[in-house]
Amino acid sequence: MEEDTSVLLWAAEEGDVPILDLHGMRGVEARHVLESFLHHHYLQGERVVRIVHGRGDGILRQEVHHLLSHIHFVDQFQDATHPALVGAVTVALFYSSQSK
Predict the structure, then answer these.
(1) Domain 3-94 maps to which CATH number in 3.20.110.10, 3.20.20.10, 3.40.30.10, 3.30.1370.110?
(2) Phi and psi at residue 64, in whole multiples of 5°?
(3) Which residues does the UniProt record annotate as the domain Smr (predicted)?
């Protein structure tokens, strides 16, 4: 992982980045809200976002990761590594809009 990527992913956990909280949402609703959120912030030129899905039974986390793996402008994503966020938050890094 290149240094710039590491810094951006750290910023997604610790910095002032767009955050989407999906608590209380299920399936289709969460997918629709997440797709809109991702597209909006990518078009705004953001590079990283934070997605809060909660821990629970992990179904919403799986849905989020599945969708992120199919969005063409998502470079990479990972579970947050901060101890308070592990399993409850995913951070995503977009390709630079200038490079796509």
Answers:
(1) 3.30.1370.110
(2) -60, -50
(3) 20-94
CA distances from 17 to 14, 29, 50, 59, 62 (A): 8, 23, 7, 24, 22
Q: For 33-51, how does the pLDDT look when each residue is reduced to its tens digit (9 = 90+)? A: 999 999 999 999 999 999 9
Of 64, 74, 67, 57, nearest to 21 (Cα)? 64
pTM: predicted TM-score of the whole model, two decimal places: 0.86
What is the average per-residue pLDDT within 64-83? 93
Compute the C-alpha angle 64/58/94, nearest 5°: 25
- How confident is the model at residue 82, as a pLDDT? 83
Quote the strand ranges of the chain, DSSP E.
19-21, 48-52, 74-79, 89-94
Please, are residues 44 and 86 in contact by the beta-carbon 8 Å criterion? no
